[in-house]
Amino acid sequence: MKRRNFLKGMASLPLLSSVSATNLLADNAKKGLVKDGVVTTAAHWGIMDVEVKDGKITGSKRHLNFTKEPNVLLNFTGDMVYNSRIKYPMVRKSYLENPDSPKPELRGVDEWVRVSYEDAIKLVAKELKKTREQKGSGGVFAAAQGWKSAGNMHNSSAWLHRFMELSGGFIGSLGDYSTGAGQIIMPHVLGSLEVYEQQTSYPVVFENSKVIVIWGADPIATLRVSYTTNDDQGLMYFEKLKELKDKKIIIIDPVKSYTAQFFGDGATWIAPRPNTDVAMMLGMAHYLYVSKKYDKEFIETYTTGFDKFVPYLLGETDKTPKTPEWAAKICGIDAKTIKELADTFVSNRTQIMCGWAMQRAHHGEQPYWMITTLASMIGQIGLAGGGIGFSFHYANGGAPTCKGAVLPGVSRGSTGRFNDKGEFIGTATGKIVNGKYVEGEGIVAKDEPSYAIPVARIADALLNPGKVIDHNGKKITYPDIDFIYWAGGNPFSHHQDLNKLTRAWQKARTVVINEQYWTASAKMADIVFPITTPYERNDITMSGDYSNMHIVPMKQVVEKFYEAKDDYQVFADLSKAYAKDLVLAYSDNGKDEFDWIKSFYNTALEQVKNIPDFYHEMKEFDEFWAENKPYTFAPTMESEAWVRHAEFREDPILNPLGTPSGLIEIFSETIDKMGYDDCQGHAMWFEPAEWLGMKTKAAEFHLINPHPEYRLHSQLSNTALRDKYAVAGREPIWINEADAKAKGIKNGDLVRVFNKRGEILAGAVVTKNISRGVVRLCEGVWYDPDANGLCKNGAANVLVNDIPSSKLANAPICHSNLVNVEKFKGTAPELTAFKDPKFA
Ligand SMILES: Nc1nc2c(c(=O)[nH]1)N[C@H]1C(S)=C(S)[C@@H](COP(=O)(O)OP(=O)(O)OC[C@H]3O[C@@H](n4cnc5c(=O)[nH]c(N)nc54)[C@H](O)[C@@H]3O)O[C@H]1N2
Ligand SMILES: Nc1nc2c(c(=O)[nH]1)N[C@H]1C(S)=C(S)[C@@H](COP(=O)(O)OP(=O)(O)OC[C@H]3O[C@@H](n4cnc5c(=O)[nH]c(N)nc54)[C@H](O)[C@@H]3O)O[C@H]1N2
Ligand SMILES: [Mo]
């Protein structure tokens, strides 16, 4: 969804500069709080009805009934409000004593001091200003990475960025952890992002596809959440797919995933060695080429550079023909199966649904490039129910887009300007006129270019200021970061090599975080603001991400917890403390949460009003709010019949792709000219830094760390959902039966998992559902290090390598790690992940 610049035309609101944003928010939040009853609201995991008794949450369940199986993530709202919460603003003791020499090495072990909210605001404003004076805006890192909570208004990272931009600028980040490699390589190859784009609609797939390949994806687990709020459309279509008996379903995954288990005998499970998919694809391509079974006409009409790829395929350039037999040695799938798979794909209408894990690996650009090359040889791209898709497993891609309104969101604003007295005077696009911020009449000054580092290079950047790196054909110089502000993310859960991140954090003088819970990232900060959960504030959201099916009111359910504040308010108060008049621009002249929600809603309402003869249920805002019910839009005949890349296939001249040639680039001149050794002119097999086939193995098992079926990353960890999966009180690790036997490990044992980067404890799940030599431990664990850095809770990221995918994308490589596993001896240490830290 594109964020709109909303400030334009909104300047006619009443002048509220003299009213404190704080008071406004407090008054409005109380509007219509239900003491006993049911409130409908939403989270990433869906639209839900929350039950309240005597002002306390007593239960929650789904509001929508599209699927047979209810989404279990919806039932734990009470725990999200009451467990592991931060109650008061806190400052780390050494920081409070001397912010200029704050002993960063004590982060995570120092004592905490409770301070008043006003003092915390003053402290942050002062230290932020000091950093900008000392280091410029390049000294300030404001993090974008984080799944925060659902809701268009209480968008923590957007408010953080808006405050940081208006108060003078900051270092941001490029890309994301989800599709870091995919979103850089695909525009070169297919001319668009692909990973965040609508997929061929499921009704089309059901009608036309004979074969469905789920390649490195686990939709039954990953479709439980959406970036907006989930509308269960994806899971609903998978339930339908299971009933269609005329489809051949093939799942390619080293793990017998939730999806593979869901289909049971209805699917074929192919388990290559982790990170060897490119070799397997090359084996198929070689077979199709030499047997002349590939679609020559498609290659000639719709692609460029095949002639430069073939010599590599045949081994003319490197003396290694990429035969199925060659591939078999690498990927562990025999040559006969590789050929059979290729035959099946090419002789049936085949829809390949590609997940994102493969590209979250060393040289993660290659599997996407190679699967596009292979799909081009199969020749079904742009046909109904054929070709490749990179987002069927995510946020209900493939659920037809509904015709209706789309809610806008918060805009980030542009860099603020100040006068000699340090008062805010405006930005490049707006200025203060008579005590009011007016958009449109900007101060004539050129905006500083925004400066950003690849998102997953944060530890590297902190440790190596001034270092120059390659990135997608450009050079980036790491800034000298001294001040980190995080809102809406959990870096000490999501970043790779947590021991390295701990060292990197020490390079910054100041770390501030807005958090709801005492996560590891909160415990590793200097200043902590306690933040409300979505159940303690009012908001509004769309559902589905791709389907745009509902507009959902997110009504406040309970009173704010202790001294928890909304992110919007924290940054409003920081604006006030930072410079005179800054808050006017930040809050658009004093808008409160309802003003924003209402303005978003009204923009959406205008959109549907302008569609002639279009039936919709949308009423005026006050009625919508009082009803507390989602509005539903319906798909159209066109969106139900929609086929990805169909226009291009129909006429590649009139509807060219966004690549330089307008065609599918099997060879990319652009990438070739960059001259990188680790990503060259066409798809290639590169050995990952760590994998099972390496000559001198760094450790015994390949660690896969997929997304958790019972959480959203680290979110929901602090709920009773944990009882469903924790083993020996820790994160479960799957290990093959034969491997477990060889190691003397039994089901339920506490095990130590380690490599040169660190060590963790986990609970063994001994199972047939994983290949030999592979172990599976989900990401998103609340990191819980002991004095020696051993994570008592089982955070995979202690073990994961923090090197970039390649010079092209600099993406994280979560899935390329070897680890050792042994039965834990000794007394099991107490888990402290969910406990408050030690207070002064
Ligand atoms: N090893 C490994 N690591 C990975 C991955 C992997 O596959 N393997 N996956 C990566 C991917 S794809 C992703 S997207 C990232 C996810 O990483 P994150 O997005 O950082 O993960 P979350 O657990 O969703 O963190 C969100 C945090 O925001 C807090 N929060 C929620 N709502 C609010 C709010 O309104 N205001 C504020 N201030 N805070 C709020 C939550 O309490 C939580 O701590 O992890 C990445 N890390
Ligand atoms: N329930 C739930 N749903 C989520 C999330 C969550 O945290 N919880 N997170 C959301 C987010 S932010 C994202 S980015 C997406 C992530 O979506 P994905 O990245 O697609 O999900 P993963 O779970 O990391 O991996 C999917 C599958 O790939 C397999 N796999 C791993 N390595 C390889 C390999 O080398 N080859 C092959 N063939 N398969 C491999 C894994 O075993 C797993 O079954 O999910 C989203 N959905
Ligand atoms: Mo992600």
Automatic annotation (TrEMBL):
Its cofactor is Mo-bis(molybdopterin guanine dinucleotide). It is an enzyme of class 1 (oxidoreductase). Keywords: Metal-binding, Molybdenum, Oxidoreductase, Periplasm, Signal. SUPFAM superfamilies: ADC-like, Formate dehydrogenase/DMSO reductase, domains 1-3. One of its GO terms (molecular function) is trimethylamine-N-oxide reductase (cytochrome c) activity. InterPro entries: Asp_de-COase-like_dom_sf (IPR009010), BisC (IPR006658), CT_DMSOR/BSOR/TMAOR (IPR041954), Molybdopterin_N (IPR041460), MoPterin_dinucl-bd_dom (IPR006657), Mopterin_OxRdtase (IPR006656), Mopterin_OxRdtase_prok_CS (IPR006655), Prok_Mopterin_Oxidored (IPR050612). Residues 85-576 form the Molybdopterin oxidoreductase domain. Its EC number is 1.7.2.3. Transmembrane segments: none annotated. Residues 41-82 form the Molybdopterin oxidoreductase N-terminal domain. Residues 1-26 form the signal peptide. CDD domains: MopB_CT_DMSOR-BSOR-TMAOR. Residues 701-814 form the Molybdopterin dinucleotide-binding domain. PANTHER family: TRIMETHYLAMINE-N-OXIDE REDUCTASE, TRIMETHYLAMINE-N-OXIDE REDUCTASE 2. Belongs to the prokaryotic molybdopterin-containing oxidoreductase family. This is Trimethylamine-N-oxide reductase 2.
